[in-house]
């Protein structure tokens, strides 16, 4: 029997505890604490799988203690990590890996995925969903916005389930394959797309008697502000204050320039 076939058979045999562990990943943040962050929730999610892997209570207790140290990552990645951890625990229980391998995987993977999750998933993908939903609402397509949200919600659940199963079946191989997903560059592309969607939203929200020159000036100002914040590290608060001052002085400037010319 091939390695992949053996993994498939093992997955089917542990289907019930695996699904219990997956469902518990939705509650990882429920016991958040300032010392271990999400560690209590992680142990809670791992417990059904550990019971199937370690029938001996003493060995299960030793495995459980490996997850009581500090743990904190983006919640969208938790199912994948729980799947990988269960895969490693299965191999540790059969003597294929030493227990120390788990700590090295946690140290090098958890926080990397946390940063990717904050940048790509929360900082790009969720922003795209919220901006595109706002565009639909501004266009009067409320039902389309609702359906769009339901589609993304369903896609998120499928993403969690798929990555959980992949994590359990592939283990460390999946960690290596994550580099091939090129998520950082996809996040950058999404940020560019978000800029265009935001421009469309500003056009929709502009007053009915749109002045193309004013709209273009506002769009260019937004691009300039984004560049100053991201590249020159100018304070957002300072730029907002400058924008309010310009907006407040605009009628006076128009009146002054009109009287001069």
TrEMBL record:
Keywords: Membrane, Transmembrane, Transmembrane helix. The chain crosses the membrane at residues 125-144, 150-168, 189-206, 212-230, 237-254. It holds the Pfam family EIID-AGA. GO terms for cellular component: membrane. One of its GO terms (biological process) is phosphoenolpyruvate-dependent sugar phosphotransferase system. This is 3-keto-L-gulonate transporter. It comes from Oceanidesulfovibrio indonesiensis. The lineage of its organism: Bacteria, Pseudomonadati, Thermodesulfobacteriota, Desulfovibrionia, Desulfovibrionales.
